[in-house]
Amino acid sequence: MLWIQVCKDDELVDGQFRIVENEDGDEVLVARAEGELLAVLNECSHDRRGFDGGCIEAGLLVCPRHGARFCLRTGKALTPPAYTDIATFPVKVEKGIIYVQA
Ligand code: FES
């Protein structure tokens, strides 16, 4: 897996996320939640569509369609109607730029 450039570190404020695509066409959601940079597959395990339009609440990713909550650190599906966990990815900051390995 390659390191993909996301954005400048100071462009991603707490409680927000960016979505990038890897070379296989998979979308990865990179978030800053409670001060921590975290990344998961941008695909809700309930309907396999992305989290665009969703939000982060109390450090958890909330699906915009039926409200399932996912742990951004582990990818664990925490509330129905999603029951399957989603993949997570490493994130780093180098010289003020955020990268995700996906
Ligand atoms: S599509 Fe995400 S909870 Fe239903």
UniProtKB/TrEMBL annotation:
Cofactor(s) essential for the protein: [2Fe-2S] cluster
SUPFAM superfamilies noted in UniProt: ISP domain (SSF50022)
InterPro entries membership: Rieske_2Fe-2S, Rieske_2Fe-2S_sf
Top-level taxon of origin: Bacteria
GO MF terms, alphabetically ordered: 2 iron, 2 sulfur cluster binding; dioxygenase activity; metal ion binding
Pfam family, one: Rieske
Ion transport found in the keyword field: no
Keywords: 2Fe-2S, Dioxygenase, Iron, Iron-sulfur, Metal-binding, Oxidoreductase
All residue ranges annotated as the Rieske domain in the record: 4-100
PANTHER family: FERREDOXIN-RELATED, RIESKE DOMAIN-CONTAINING PROTEIN
Family as reported in the entry's similarity comment: Belongs to the bacterial ring-hydroxylating dioxygenase ferredoxin component family.
Name recorded for this polypeptide: 3-phenylpropionate/trans-cinnamate dioxygenase ferredoxin subunit
Organism of derivation: Marinospirillum alkaliphilum DSM 21637
